[in-house]
């Protein structure tokens, strides 16, 4: 079951919330009136119970009376909780609406999931799902629930409902709940679901159930031992690896200030008070008296709270009443509407700092109050962009919509260019960066910040709500995303509906937004006099995005579910005239498409100068094409157009394309005239031979010139684009990232373990050289460990730091995120060594398999270190390690130089290689990515380098089965998981023989598979043949050893 981190109250020292519980019935105050009065009196939550009926004949004891006797007759008169809370939602704005408790097992889980999601949607994300196993066995039996299976059944119900709430296409196959692939909307506003609190007696069994399947605990009316049970729950919660602290709601009885203060100190998050089932006047009077006793009318938080590492301070220079804040008198309605229409649960926060615009992605933004409009969010650290936002005078919170996953991923990715050429953004008149294409945007000023360790909770007042439709009308009227003439699935099986939807609604939409942003920024630059400085960049930006918009607009019209066949009339005659036959034309066009390097388009066009049909390759969205042509037929060869369906087999995609071409549209050129009106020649065209030669070579010369400039004076031949990733956890030398979607892990978990002294980018050099992106495209969720930079203070770190601490911690974290599923490890070079040692040393870790790429086992088979081994035979490791011990390790420059020595021929011949390939952008981009990778290599810690020299290079301990770390022996023969080893045919660092030796060492593994692959050491992971060799072996191995999900029953 997916776990929820509840951001509202996870920090020690925050005041206890106060909630009210009304035992609703068909007499007394109505739930809507009670909830409205509770909100008006400052209470935080309103709860109602559930019983569908009470069987007359019962043996079950009531928890309060300890007998079959009921306390009163309200149990048989209870209102339906979801109808009651629906009426309450319609008359309130901020109070949380919960059940204390609901009995999900008495409902159909699919229907109940729809009910709760609808209520959370309509209330703006205020539902608290309090659940119980049910004490009344006879009541449950009437619903077909076996009394001895309540816990398992409830867990399945919640898991099945969670799938419907969090997945676009959900399915579930359990003992008590089964349904096939299904769609279900709306989704809850709270992501991935509303918080789930279990009501039940405090004991170890209950708390283990909560730690695995819920987000907190509601006590029973007879609970006595609060302190001990809170401590026990928090201990079990932490041992289960849950983030933050559990919600703990205590049934409070009378308002005792000392008791409430004590509960706050021990971590209770909410005190719930019962409300009498009486007339409206009596209930409202009771609420007012209770609120006065609790100090709700006059309570104020101190400016600074000391204790347990928590500090609250006022930030910024404005207060809530500051007249300088340009706010509307009341924005309550638009503020509530913004959160109600915030389905993604993810926000992007932007601000302007001294160095320009900054932004981060956050999944913790919540509404605190509607009037005044107040929100809060958490910053996990005060580094980089987060520090800019924490100190900003104002910022903008963009509530992401379902089409913003790529945008949100960019702002969550380490090292990503967030306000680059392809980012549709502009400055607001008030100075904050504004992102086009998101949902509502909230301009806010900070009120205070609360720190707890490295984390910071920011509270801010919203002073303006920007409607995305308004921004579109004001700023983006020039270009719009065109509607298609057919459904997304209409072109199947030739082009899948999934591809069409992503291609049109996300990729094309990004180009539209980018073009409009460029137009707007150019206009602003003309007005403020900065056009000279900004024109080069903005013009390039406009060309790229406008090219993407126009190209796709033609592409959609070129397609039709009724397409295929062959053209007729003038177009058919012109094709025969200029290409010989239609088949010759098809072969020519297909060859242009399949041989295009990098990204771009194949284009059939009319050349207005030569007055003939031509086929050209368009690179990216705007390059390598003649300016005097009129495009007729365009084929998108960017990977996003076909990879989900056809993988890397471009030829199959191009072959399928001929089945969906709308030849009627192709025959109608873009200016609206016919083919005949373009003046197609039916005779030989007299074109000068010299001008034809220049026309043929000009694109190649332009490319070569552009690449030469980029390598010599510019920023390179290509902007590096890495796979989007999200920081999952961080710590010294152990930052853990997840590639891909922000909202929910999917597929088999895979951990990429980098070697020491190598940048973690080895698995994600660039598009086309990214094992991470390849794994993500399959049925996997790849994760990455990043060790960061090694400094002198890290000189005492040895292999045991990774084998016993850093890697096991990452494995457990990932497994917990995937409901206990075992994790597949992939390690390149020494990353493979550390993975093998970790698995051998810790048989209890949830490891599914290990892949070791270019990982030497027998160091006697490495010719490059033979001289060192010979010297070491007589001197030990002293000559190798004495200097490194003095400086704390092997410095980064020496590591980089050593790596270059292993590829000396490459370095010597590089100038000739560049000259020979100046016209080939893809080849130069690969070279450039490797150069950047080598330049970013960090150093080795002193102790780790000594262990490499002493135990691996000189002692050959891996091949001898025993490595000694921190005084204990680790035997590779103890490894008990499947292993794949891949060796490179031209690898001089880890020759084939040194890698293949693994097959004779891992005697305890259930299977050891060895494969050869073409390539050098780095080429195994990121070379031009890696996709069809190393990556293909990994795909097959992971599929064979896919982890079986751990049962949650």
From TrEMBL:
<feature type="domain" description="Flavin reductase like">
    <location>
        <begin position="339"/>
        <end position="471"/>
    </location>
</feature>
<dbReference type="InterPro" id="IPR001189">
    <property type="entry name" value="Mn/Fe_SOD"/>
</dbReference>
<dbReference type="GO" id="GO:0046872">
    <property type="term" value="F:metal ion binding"/>
</dbReference>
<dbReference type="InterPro" id="IPR011251">
    <property type="entry name" value="Luciferase-like_dom"/>
</dbReference>
<keyword id="KW-0479">Metal-binding</keyword>
<dbReference type="InterPro" id="IPR000073">
    <property type="entry name" value="AB_hydrolase_1"/>
</dbReference>
<keyword id="KW-0049">Antioxidant</keyword>
<dbReference type="Pfam" id="PF01613">
    <property type="entry name" value="Flavin_Reduct"/>
</dbReference>
<dbReference type="InterPro" id="IPR019833">
    <property type="entry name" value="Mn/Fe_SOD_BS"/>
</dbReference>
<keyword id="KW-0560">Oxidoreductase</keyword>
<dbReference type="InterPro" id="IPR036661">
    <property type="entry name" value="Luciferase-like_sf"/>
</dbReference>
<dbReference type="InterPro" id="IPR036324">
    <property type="entry name" value="Mn/Fe_SOD_N_sf"/>
</dbReference>
<dbReference type="Pfam" id="PF02777">
    <property type="entry name" value="Sod_Fe_C"/>
</dbReference>
<dbReference type="InterPro" id="IPR019921">
    <property type="entry name" value="Lucif-like_OxRdtase_Rv2161c"/>
</dbReference>
<protein>
    <recommendedName>
        <fullName>Superoxide dismutase [Mn], mitochondrial</fullName>
        <ecNumber>1.15.1.1</ecNumber>
    </recommendedName>
</protein>
<dbReference type="InterPro" id="IPR036314">
    <property type="entry name" value="SOD_C_sf"/>
</dbReference>
<dbReference type="InterPro" id="IPR019831">
    <property type="entry name" value="Mn/Fe_SOD_N"/>
</dbReference>
<dbReference type="Pfam" id="PF00081">
    <property type="entry name" value="Sod_Fe_N"/>
</dbReference>
<dbReference type="GO" id="GO:0004784">
    <property type="term" value="F:superoxide dismutase activity"/>
</dbReference>
<dbReference type="GO" id="GO:0016705">
    <property type="term" value="F:oxidoreductase activity, acting on paired donors, with incorporation or reduction of molecular oxygen"/>
</dbReference>
<dbReference type="Pfam" id="PF00561">
    <property type="entry name" value="Abhydrolase_1"/>
</dbReference>
<dbReference type="InterPro" id="IPR012349">
    <property type="entry name" value="Split_barrel_FMN-bd"/>
</dbReference>
<dbReference type="InterPro" id="IPR002563">
    <property type="entry name" value="Flavin_Rdtase-like_dom"/>
</dbReference>
<dbReference type="InterPro" id="IPR029058">
    <property type="entry name" value="AB_hydrolase_fold"/>
</dbReference>
<dbReference type="Pfam" id="PF00296">
    <property type="entry name" value="Bac_luciferase"/>
</dbReference>
<dbReference type="GO" id="GO:0010181">
    <property type="term" value="F:FMN binding"/>
</dbReference>
<dbReference type="InterPro" id="IPR019832">
    <property type="entry name" value="Mn/Fe_SOD_C"/>
</dbReference>
<comment type="similarity">
    <text>Belongs to the iron/manganese superoxide dismutase family.</text>
</comment>
<dbReference type="InterPro" id="IPR050265">
    <property type="entry name" value="Fe/Mn_Superoxide_Dismutase"/>
</dbReference>
């Amino acid at each position: 079951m997916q776990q929820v981190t509840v951001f509202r109250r996870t920090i020690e020292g925050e005041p206890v919330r106060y909630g009210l519980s009304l035992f609703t019935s068909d007499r007394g105050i109505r739930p809507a009136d009670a909830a409205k009065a509770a909100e008006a009196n400052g209470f935080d939550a309103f709860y109602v119970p559930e019983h569908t009926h009470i069987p007359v004949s019962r043996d079950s004891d009531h928890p309060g009376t300890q007998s079959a006797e009921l306390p009163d007759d309200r149990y048989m008169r209870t209102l339906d909780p979801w109808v009651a809370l629906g009426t309450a939602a319609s008359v309130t704005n901020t109070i949380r609406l919960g059940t204390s408790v609901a009995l999900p097992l008495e409902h159909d889980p699919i229907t109940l999931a729809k009910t709760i999601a609808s209520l959370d949607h309509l209330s703006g994300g205020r539902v608290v799902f309090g659940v119980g196993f049910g004490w009344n066995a006879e009541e449950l039996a009437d619903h077909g629930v076996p009394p001895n299976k309540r816990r398992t059944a409830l867990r399945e119900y919640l898991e099945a409902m969670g799938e419907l709430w969090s997945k676009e296409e959900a399915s579930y196959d359990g003992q008590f709940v089964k349904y096939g692939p299904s769609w279900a909307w709306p989704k809850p506003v709270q992501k991935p679901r509303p918080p789930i609190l279990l009501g039940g007696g405090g004991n170890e069994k209950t708390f283990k159930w909560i730690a695995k399947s819920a987000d907190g605990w509601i006590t029973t009316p007879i609970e006595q031992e609060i302190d001990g049970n809170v401590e026990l729950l928090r201990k079990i919660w932490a041992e289960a690896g849950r983030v933050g602290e559990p919600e703990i709601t205590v049934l409070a009885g009378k308002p005792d200030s000392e008791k409430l203060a004590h509960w706050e100190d021990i971590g209770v998050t909410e005190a719930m008070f019962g409300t009498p089932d009486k007339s409206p006047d009596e209930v409202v009077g009771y609420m007012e008296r209770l609120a006065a006793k609790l100090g709700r009318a006059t309570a104020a938080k101190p400016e600074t709270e000391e204790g347990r590492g928590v500090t609250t301070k006022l930030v910024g220079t404005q207060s809530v009443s500051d007249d300088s804040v340009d706010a509307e008198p009341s924005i309550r309605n638009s503020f509530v509407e913004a959160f109600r229409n915030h389905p993604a649960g993810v926000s992007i926060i932007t601000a302007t700092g001294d160095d320009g615009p900054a932004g981060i992605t956050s999944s913790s933004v919540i509404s605190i109050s509607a009037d005044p409009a107040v929100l809060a969010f958490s910053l996990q650290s005060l580094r980089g962009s987060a520090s800019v936002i924490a100190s900003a005078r104002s910022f903008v919170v963009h509530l992401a919509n379902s089409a913003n996953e790529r945008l949100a991923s960019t702002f969550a990715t380490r090292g990503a260019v967030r306000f680059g050429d392809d980012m549709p953004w502009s400055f607001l008149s008030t100075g904050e960066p504004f992102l086009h294409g998101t949902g509502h945007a909230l301009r806010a000023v900070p009120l205070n910040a609360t720190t707890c360790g490295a984390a910071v909770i920011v509270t801010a007042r919203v002073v303006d709500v920007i409607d995305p439709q308004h921004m579109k009308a004001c700023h983006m009227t020039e270009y719009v995303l065109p509607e298609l003439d057919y459904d997304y699935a209409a072109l199947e099986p030739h082009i899948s509906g999934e591809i069409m939807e992503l291609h049109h609604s996300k990729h094309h939409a990004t180009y539209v937004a980018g073009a409009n942003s460029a137009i707007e920024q150019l206009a602003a630059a003309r007005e403020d006099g900065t056009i000279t400085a900004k024109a080069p960049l903005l013009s390039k930006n406009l060309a790229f995005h406008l090219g993407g918009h126009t190209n796709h607009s033609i592409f959609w019209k070129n397609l039709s579910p009724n397409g295929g066949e062959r053209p007729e009339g003038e177009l058919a005659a012109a094709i025969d005239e200029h290409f010989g036959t239609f088949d010759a034309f098809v072969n020519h066009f297909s060859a242009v498409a399949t041989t295009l390097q990098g990204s771009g388009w194949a284009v059939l066009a009319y050349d207005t100068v030569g007055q003939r049909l031509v086929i050209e390759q368009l690179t990216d969205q705007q390059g390598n094409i003649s300016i005097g042509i009129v495009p007729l037929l365009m084929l998108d060869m960017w990977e996003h157009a076909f990879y989900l369906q056809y993988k890397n087999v471009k030829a199959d995609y191009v072959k399928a394309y001929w089945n969906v071409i709308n030849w009627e549209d192709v025959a109608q050129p873009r200016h609206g005239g016919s083919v005949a009106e373009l003046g197609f020649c039916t005779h030989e065209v007299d074109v000068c031979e010299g001008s034809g030669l220049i026309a043929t070579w000009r694109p190649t010369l332009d490319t070569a010139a552009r690449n030469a400039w980029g390598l010599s004076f510019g920023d390179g031949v290509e902007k590096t684009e890495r796979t989007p990733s999200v920081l999952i956890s961080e710590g010294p030398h152990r930052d853990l990232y997840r590639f891909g979607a922000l909202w929910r892990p999917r597929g088999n978990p895979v951990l990429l373990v980098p070697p020491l002294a190598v940048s973690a980018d080895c698995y994600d050099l660039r598009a086309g050289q990214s094992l991470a992106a390849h794994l993500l495209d399959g049925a996997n969720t790849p994760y990455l460990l990043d060790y960061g930079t090694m400094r002198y203070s890290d000189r005492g770190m040895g292999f045991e730091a990774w084998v016993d601490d850093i890697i096991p911690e990452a494995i457990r974290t990932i497994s917990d995120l995937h409901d206990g599923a075992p994790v597949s490890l992939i390690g390149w070079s020494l990353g493979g060594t550390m993975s093998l040692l970790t698995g051998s040393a810790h048989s209890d870790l949830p490891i599914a398999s290990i892949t070791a790429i270019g990982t030497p086992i027998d160091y006697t088979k490495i010719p490059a270190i033979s001289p060192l081994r010979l010297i070491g035979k007589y001197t030990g490791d002293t000559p190798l390690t004495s200097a490194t011990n003095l400086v704390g390790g092997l410095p980064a420059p020496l590591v980089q130089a050593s790596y270059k020595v292993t590829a000396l021929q490459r370095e010597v011949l590089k100038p000739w290689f560049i000259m020979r390939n100046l016209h080939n952008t893809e080849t130069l981009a690969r070279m450039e990515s490797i150069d950047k990778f080598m330049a970013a290599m960090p150093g080795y810690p002193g102790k780790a380098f000594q262990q490499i020299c002493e135990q691996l290079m000189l002692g050959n301990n891996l091949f001898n089965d025993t490595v000694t770390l921190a005084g204990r022996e680790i035997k590779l023969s103890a490894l008990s998981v499947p292993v794949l080893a891949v060796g490179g045919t031209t690898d001089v660092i880890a020759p084939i023989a040194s890698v293949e030796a693994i097959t004779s060492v891992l005697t305890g593994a259930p299977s050891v598979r060895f494969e050869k692959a073409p390539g050098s050491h780095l080429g195994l992971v990121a070379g031009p043949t890696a996709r069809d060799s190393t990556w293909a072996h990994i795909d097959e191995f992971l599929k064979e050893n896919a982890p079986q999900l751990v049962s949650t029953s």
